[in-house]
Design goal:
The chain is 39% helix and 22% strand. The chain is of the alpha+beta class and 232 residues long.
């Protein structure tokens, strides 16, 4: 990740100084809510979803610690999505006015937030490409590799194994598949020795084969491109 000065670290900590403990299943933002800020995601798993006009819920993203929640709503008068805790979680609220001050007090941190939003956009682009044009095995392979890549810097991957607290319904929403199809795909991949499951923990047994199955290569992200403002 980015290297911050002491001043920048302090500015970042002061964005959301008060943490909120949240319970599994809690919805703390609903689509259409009036908003005056966004959330820093500090612990746990959280989903972002919208409701289609026909009433069907669509989960767009599973968020992990370090993500920024609710930034798409900054371009709207009301919340663009619903945020629900998949597990117990911890968030910190950031008023828009406090975020605004970053642009004058710590412009490099504000630029890094711009980078974070672009990384989120890349993730959604890749998900859309995979869901629209890949087989069920390819979609699941990409998702598992993406989760491993995002969880590893948090110290939550051990020998290519990590907790996966997602129901087959949630996985189906993310992959554009029915829960029955998800169940069948997981069982097939287990039989082939690609993955292994134990309760809510999953291990990527054959990473090379999963990478071959994935319709997209993992992105090599540049967290500190040369155009960023210089460190103060």
């Amino acid at each position: 990740m980015a290297n911050l000065t002491d001043l920048e670290e302090r500015a970042l900590r002061e964005l959301g100084p008060i943490e909120t403990q949240r319970r599994r299943g809690e919805t703390f933002q609903r689509e259409g809510d009036q908003l005056s800020g966004f959330h820093l995601h500090n612990a746990g798993w959280i989903s972002s979803s919208i409701v289609l006009r026909g009433g069907k819920r669509l989960i767009q993203k599973v968020h992990l610690p370090g993500d920024i929640l609710g930034t798409p709503s900054m371009a709207l008068q009301t919340a663009a999505d619903t945020l629900t805790c998949i597990t117990d979680a911890v968030t910190a609220y950031v008023p828009y006015t406090r975020f605004r001050d970053l642009y004058t007090l710590a412009p490099r941190v504000a630029a890094l937030f711009t980078m974070a939003v672009q990384i989120e956009r890349l993730s959604l682009m890749d998900m859309l490409a995979a869901v629209g044009n890949a087989s069920a095995r390819a979609r699941l392979s990409r998702l598992l590799l993406d989760l491993r890549a995002r969880l590893a810097p948090l110290g939550l991957v051990e020998e290519n194994a990590f907790d996966l607290p997602l129901t087959q319904e949630v996985l189906g929403d993310l992959l554009g598949l029915t829960s029955v199809h998800v169940n069948r795909t997981i069982r097939d991949m287990e039989r082939e020795g690609l993955i292994a499951r134990s309760d809510h923990r999953i291990k990527l047994v054959d990473v090379a084969k999963l990478q071959h199955l994935s319709p997209l290569l993992l992105r090599q992200l540049a967290f500190e491109p040369p155009w960023l403002p210089p460190r103060a």
